[in-house]
TrEMBL record, chain A:
Keywords: ATP-binding, Nucleotide-binding, Transport
Domain ABC transporter: 2-237
One Pfam family it belongs to: ABC_tran
Protein name: ATP-binding cassette domain-containing protein
SMART domains listed in its UniProt record: AAA (SM00382)
PANTHER family with a match to the protein in the record: INTERMEMBRANE PHOSPHOLIPID TRANSPORT SYSTEM ATP-BINDING PROTEIN MLAF, PROTEIN TRIGALACTOSYLDIACYLGLYCEROL 3, CHLOROPLASTIC
InterPro entries per record: AAA+_ATPase, ABC_transporter-like_ATP-bd, ABC_transporter-like_CS, P-loop_NTPase
Keyword Magnesium: no
TrEMBL record, chain B:
Bilayer-crossing regions: 52-73, 149-174, 203-222, 234-253
Protein name according to UniProt: ABC transporter permease
Topology in membrane: Multi-pass membrane protein
Organism: Defluviimonas salinarum
Coiled-coil residues: none
Task performed by this protein: Could be part of an ABC transporter complex.
Lineage of origin: Bacteria, Pseudomonadati, Pseudomonadota, Alphaproteobacteria, Rhodobacterales
């Protein structure tokens, strides 16, 4: 279980997170929604330790992530980045098997390659893709490779940062379905951030809305459409008028 | 008050410069602290060695060749004013190995390598590849900075040694073919006046310049701002900082090695 309590983060005078309280139960898929620039990515990066929060606590299964052994902590996570964040200098299979080729999870090269090809197959890519370089792939294929890399070491927790940004609706649907299937079959805890409502409906067990640096509303996906929260209603229906200013 | 405004601006500039120098020093110290602690990445080190050492050979060699030739012409013309044309071989050799070989080699490597490292790491930063490395339990400094800094520190002295030889050969070509020196006498004078310390001091300078070049490339790449403009600025800053630091370090090392 991931627990955030009164997490604050400011960049200069810009107070991005102003006291975030959130619980992500083990095995559940939490999707955080909110407009662009509301701090969704910063929140994910705070949990991973890529950004240090100014105050507040973040705990994984009751242990403060700031004091946890870093390598063991990160070994429990997989992450799909918004732009894929694939390493240009490495072929696809070495991107997927990056964690399996070095560090505490190191395997023999042949075995790592086999696992990479199996993960590529799992995300719908042919084995021939394994020896291509990221620059030779389309945006949708890069997302799939990123997803294969995120799941390669069978993590307990998977983060998805804007998984469908930049994809056409059909490819976005494919990625959403893949994420849902993989999270279910792995039994992983998932946390995704997006402003794509089709992703929310496909991926989420629970939804949290981040606005003005705090969680404005959180609840099961089934209750999202019925909630009277004006922020959620404005956001999910894409209305220009409401409590969320159109110009931020 | 209006007269104090420029002073205030100057003060802020100095403070910003000092803060940047401090951050560079901390980055350098952090790099050194990772140098001897595992994990090590030998493949990345060898790739960096090829990029920095082998692929810089043509540019360093060409620079040294033309510099050696020009130096021979200048010393001959200058020496003719007081009938000292005969010093051409020794001055070319000493000038190349003590100063021009390491400094020009360092500057050419700075232009070629610091820019490419800063652009590569800067692009990795803005496309979240550095964050991805961290989430994959890989320390970006160990994986990206340490192999490049180590490779440059070892490769640039070798480049300097090759550049010195080519530069002296450039002087020899001009001396023999253009200025009418006897080949055997030219080589004899070169050998006689050159001391081992002249060569070794130049190689130490090369090691220091290699360290500076890779460190500046990595520092500005890692601290690159977002977007194409951010990467462009990081690349430019890396080359400028590396070049200025090479010249300043060269002066300090010359003071240290040769001051009476």
């Amino acid at each position: 279980m991931i627990t955030l309590s009164q997490v604050h983060k400011a960049f200069g005078k810009n107070r991005v997170l102003r006291g975030v309280d959130l619980t992500v139960p083990t095995g559940e898929s939490m999707v955080i929604i909110g407009g662009s620039g509301t701090g969704k990515s910063v929140l994910l990066k705070c949990i991973l330790g890529l950004v240090q929060p100014d105050s507040g606590t973040i705990a994984l299964d009751g242990e403060d992530v700031g004091t946890a052994a870093r390598d063991a902590f990160l070994a429990r996570f997989g992450m799909l980045f918004q732009g894929g964040a694939l390493f240009d200098s490495l072929p696809v299979w070495q991107n997927v098997a990056f964690r399996l080729l070095r560090g505490s999870l190191k395997r023999p090269k042949g075995e790592a390659r086999e696992i990479a090809i199996e993960k590529l197959r799992r995300v719908g890519l042919k084995p021939e893709v394994a020896d291509l370089f990221p620059a030779e792939l389309s945006g949708g294929m890069q997302k799939r490779v990123g997803l294969a890399r995120a799941i390669a070491a069978e993590p307990e927790i998977i983060f998805f940062d804007e998984p469908t940004t930049g994809l056409d609706p059909i490819m976005a649907g494919v990625i959403n379905e893949l994420i849902r299937e993989i999270v279910t079959e792995m039994g992983a805890t998932a946390m995704a951030i997006t402003h794509d409502m089709s992703s929310v409906r496909a991926i989420a067990d629970r939804v949290a809305m981040l606005h003005d640096g705090v969680i404005q509303w959180t609840g099961p996906i089934a209750e999202m459409d019925e909630t009277s929260d004006p922020y959620v209603q404005q956001f999910i229906h894409g209305r220009a008028e409401g409590p969320i200013a159109a110009v931020r | 008050m209006i007269l104090l405004a420029p002073l205030g601006a100057l003060g802020r500039l100095v403070l910003t410069g000092l803060a940047t120098l401090g951050r560079m020093a901390i980055f350098g110290a952090e790099t050194l602290s990772h140098l001897f602690r595992p994990p090590f990445y030998p493949k990345e080190f060898l790739a960096a060695l090829m990029q920095i050492g082998w692929f810089s050979l043509p540019v360093v060699g060409m620079t040294a060749l033309f510099t050696g030739g020009a130096l021979a012409l200048q010393i001959y013309a200058g020496g003719a004013r007081f009938s000292a044309e005969a010093v051409v071989p020794s001055i070319v050799a000493i000038g190349m190995v003590r100063e021009l070989g390491p400094v020009l080699g360092g500057l050419m490597v700075a232009a070629r390598v610091a820019s490419s490292i800063a652009a590569e790491i800067g692009t990795m930063k803005v496309t979240e590849q550095i964050d991805a490395l961290t989430t994959l339990s890989t320390h970006p400094m160990k994986y990206l900075t340490v192999p490049r800094v180590l490779a440059a520190t070892l490769a640039v002295p070798v480049l300097v040694a090759v550049g010195d030889s080519i530069g002296i050969f450039g002087g020899y070509l001009v001396g023999v073919n253009r200025l009418g020196f006897n080949p055997a006498t030219y080589l004899k004078n070169t050998r006689e006046f050159l001391e081992l310390w002249d060569i070794v001091s130049g190689l130490w300078k090369g090691a220091a310049f290699g360290f500076i070049v890779a460190l500046m490339g990595c520092y500005f790449g890692m601290n690159s701002a977002r977007g194409a403009q951010g990467v462009g600025r990081a690349t430019k800053s890396a080359v400028v900082a590396a070049s200025v630091l090479i010249l300043a370090t060269n002066y300090l090392m010359t003071e240290l090695f040769f001051s009476a």
